[in-house]
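Sequence only, no structure available. Ideas?
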Amino acid sequence: MTKPSTEEVREEGGTPAPERIRALEEEIRRLCGGSADCWTAHDCPDDLWEAHLEDVLAFENVGVGLSLFEGLEMHGLELPRPERLNERQSRKKVFEIMQALLGLQVMLTGFEHLSGRQLYRTLFEDTLWDGCYVKKKRPELVTIIDLSRPPRRSEQRLRMIAMAKARTVQ
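Reply:
I predicted one. Tokens follow.
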């Protein structure tokens, strides 16, 4: 069953239907094993919140779209196996990854406790597989990936990540 498009669920006057926003929030929770908190500022326009939720949903649909890892490689970023890089090379590669992610409006936080090698290994083996390579609909929207705590993943999400990794020769 396909979901109606944003245009099909707009109320008169062009305002997104609250049902559409609730449906997006519920789908995000489902993908995250029921543990996602969806909140926004009280004065955030509904159309901006809806666009953000659509971007989050696209980002979280690992297994459907290209992973961040695959997308970065497709766009020319070389991602060698972590054991092939020393500390200096790892820090340089992390900087390249962060620059590329900024181009997608994705920011990393919570990694200050990691060395360059530890951070690159975390990105290579885990983080870059846990999100899809998507362009944001609105340039003012940003995705923040917090590396200070382990992600909560459902069994379905773990299967989706495994499928994405299986598509890529490492």
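The mean pLDDT is 81.
Hope that gets you unstuck.
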